[in-house]
């Protein structure tokens, strides 16, 4: 954990700390590894040699899964949203294929059904939901919650939300802390449904910092990420952590927090290739 400093924080009398989960690994970083760990361990214990999962064209989850399974000698299959795509459509997909992930591209209508194509061999395999979401992922976040608890008392805790596994996992383990989730997709209703299904209460969701779709470029957000790095020497990307820190800065500027508040932001990793 490191404290970051800014004229804005001093003016508002706020202390901001960053949990550097991005330092876990250069590729399988942050919550990507924490969510995948339980699945990978299960596969190794059971001798499972094939992992199937879902994601979009810029999925950090699939990117991390492709690398992890390459290292462990497990076959991986990625079902990608968008039939117009191919392995050369962006650097993420290119690297995933280079690492041995078998890529299958589906129409958006087909993808919504989350059905595995009949052409894919499902013998001796496990299927991981989009973004790694599931009980196993939430169980993997327990270690993160324990680490946060050991770092001292905080008034507010921030994390970006994709599928919600990290946010719900922390909320389950740290009910005494005010936990804020910054949405990176227009999926608030999905997060609420997951919360209800798992019996984990939602504390605070912020949906004003989505900036459109994942792949849609926002010059304002790109500029913020660049400025943030110049100030704090911590790399963030515009898909997850950029949106979270942008939201945190905006809320501080609008006096959302009481003077003297201690805030921790979880750097959940993510890559920009």
Q: What does this molecule look like?
A:
The structure is a single chain. The protein has 273 residues and is α/β, with parallel strands linked by helices. It has two domains: 2-25 and 136-267, Rossmann fold, CATH 3.40.50; 30-134, Rossmann fold, CATH 3.40.50.1100. The protein has eleven helices and ten strands. The strands form two sheets. Strands 1-2-10-7-8-9 form a six-stranded mixed beta sheet, sandwiched between helices. It has a four-stranded parallel beta sheet with strand order 5-4-3-6. Strand 7 (156-161), helix 8 and strand 8 (178-183) form a beta-alpha-beta unit. Helix 3 runs parallel beside helix 4. The protein is globular, with a radius of gyration of 19 Å. The mean pLDDT is 91.
Characterize the main sheet: 6 strands, mixed
According to CATH, the fold-level topology of the largest domain is Rossmann fold
Along the chain, the helix and strand elements come as EHEHEHEHEHEHHEHEHEHHE
Question: Any guess at the CATH architecture of the largest domain?
Answer: 3-Layer(aba) Sandwich
Into how many domains do the coordinates divide? 2
Using the coordinates above, name the CATH class of the largest domain: Alpha Beta
User: Share of helix among residues?
Assistant: 40-55%
> pLDDT average, as an integer?
91
Can you list the strand order of the major beta sheet?
Answer: 1-2-10-7-8-9
DSSP strand content: 15-25%
**Poorly predicted segments:** none
- How would you classify the helix and strand content by structural class? alpha/beta
What characteristic shape results from the CA principal axes? globular
Note the gap between the termini: 25 Å
Quickly count the helices. 11
Estimated radius of gyration: 19 Å
Query: Count of DSSP E strands?
Result: 10
């Amino acid at each position: 954990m490191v404290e970051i400093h800014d004229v804005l924080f001093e003016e508002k009398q706020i202390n901001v700390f960053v949990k550097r989960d991005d330092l876990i690994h250069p590729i399988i970083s942050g919550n990507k590894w924490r969510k995948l760990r339980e699945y990978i361990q299960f596969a190794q214990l059971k001798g499972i040699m094939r992992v199937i999962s879902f994601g979009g064209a810029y999925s950090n989850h699939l990117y991390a899964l492709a690398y992890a399974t390459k290292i462990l000698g497990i076959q991986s299959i990625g079902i990608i949203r968008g039939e117009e795509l191919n392995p050369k459509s962006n650097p993420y997909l290119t690297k995933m294929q280079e690492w041995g992930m078998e890529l299958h591209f589906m129409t958006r209508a087909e993808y919504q059904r989350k059905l595995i194509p009949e052409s894919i061999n499902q013998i001796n395999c496990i299927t991981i939901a989009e973004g790694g979401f599931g009980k196993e992922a939430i169980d993997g976040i327990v270690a993160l919650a324990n680490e946060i608890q050991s770092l001292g008392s905080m008034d507010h805790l921030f994390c970006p939300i994709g599928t919600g596994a990290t946010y719900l996992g922390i909320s389950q383990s740290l009910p005494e802390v005010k936990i804020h989730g910054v949405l990176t997709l227009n999926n608030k209703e999905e997060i609420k449904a997951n919360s209800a299904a798992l019996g984990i209460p939602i504390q605070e969701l912020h949906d004003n910092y989505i900036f459109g779709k994942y792949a849609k470029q926002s010059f304002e957000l790109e500029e913020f990420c660049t400025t943030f790095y110049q100030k704090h020497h911590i790399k963030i990307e515009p898909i997850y952590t950029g949106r979270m820190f942008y939201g945190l800065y905006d809320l501080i500027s609008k006096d959302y927090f009481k003077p003297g508040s201690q805030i921790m932001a979880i750097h959940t990793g993510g890559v920009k290739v």
